[in-house]
Amino acid sequence: MLMKRTIIAVMCSAFALAACQTQDAYTGEQKTSKATYGAGIGAVVGALGGALIGGGDSTDRRQRAMIAGGIGALAGGGVGYYMDSQEKELANQLRSSGVSVTRVGNNIILNMPGNVTFATNSYNINAGFYDVLNSVAIVLKKYDKTMIDVTGHTDSTGSDQTNQVLSQNRANSVARYLASQGLNGQRFLVSGAGESQPIASNNTAAGREQNRRVEIKLTPLTN
Predict the structure, then answer these.
(1) Which residues contact 13 (CB under 8 A, 6 or more apart)?
(2) Which domains can be identified in the chain, with CATH numbers?
């Protein structure tokens, strides 16, 4: 557990100084945020065809697997343009959905709040959220040169173990559904971060609501 949290902390620090351009999920307005968005490192939860177990070289392994499977890697200036186009289409698809689209360098973060994705203490996807995930899947199928990290998060209510399991199950539910829409399982890394990566204070109801979320990080496939 200590090693896992240390790895997570190191990864988070890499993003801490980056100013993020975020589109408000309801108004469509672009704004600058200093919020830290991290991808959790952990074991793949359940059976997701082709998905890899988390680890320090998981990105390299996915890159090799995808390239070996015939997906060409992005190079040079093409990376930024490719991610710009993908970001624009995701923002258009997800406007007014409750899901925010954030750019961090050449990565894209989709933040799916728990209050619109799942019922309290449940990892069953809300019926009304399937259309949103379908919209995400449409874009991710078109832009297949990106790796997909799906990470579940909770607030600090409850035990560490309960939160860890719930976060993993929620991430797995989202990843499984996306994969069922025809996405290559080799693109996925699925993990649960429990309560270890809050983006707001757990001392208020509003802050805890923000911390209950599933994040999807999209990383370009490069050589």
Answers:
(1) none
(2) 2-220 (3.30.1330.60)
